[in-house]
Amino acid sequence: MFVIILLIVILFILVYFFIIKPLFMSQAFNRYHFRVEWGGTRIGFTEVSGLDIEIEAVDYREGSSAEDSVRKIPGLRKFSNITLKREIVKGDNEFFNWINTKQIGTIEKRDVTISLLNESHDPVVVWNVKNAFPVQYLGPALLSSDGGLAIETLVLTHEGLSVKNV
Description:
Blueprint: H1 2-24, E1 34-37, E2 47-49, E3 53-60, E4 71-79, E5 82-87, H2 94-99, E6 110-117, E7 123-138, E8 151-157, E9 161-165
Antiparallel strand pairs: 1-6, 2-5, 3-4, 5-8, 6-7, 7-8, 7-9
């Protein structure tokens, strides 16, 4: 009888830890596994930042208001510039070429997709950036006393950002 009870307890523990508990746990993902599809041939980057959305708070008060404070109403949505960083590779001028598409009043705009990937390389969170274009190119800091990689940076502005959890 004791053996049967012990087996039932062990079975319950196994079911709980391997079936029930994983169903209710949220899975967090590391931030170091991602790709950027930006219209260039290389999709690997060392850093992406600026995936921010902000809503401006506008102060409003009518002159006939009995209250001596302002009301806050939602204003315009603002998007941060997105910064892409990657190592410099021989023969790759795609960042520089894109910023040089600037003509009087125009520049080449592209939709950009940034995907956070799981261990199987499948997207789990996708940021879609609408009508992005470069506003700044930064070449590497060259230091004779540092053995680090030469990193180039492209700063993008854009007209919208959506986030989708896949």
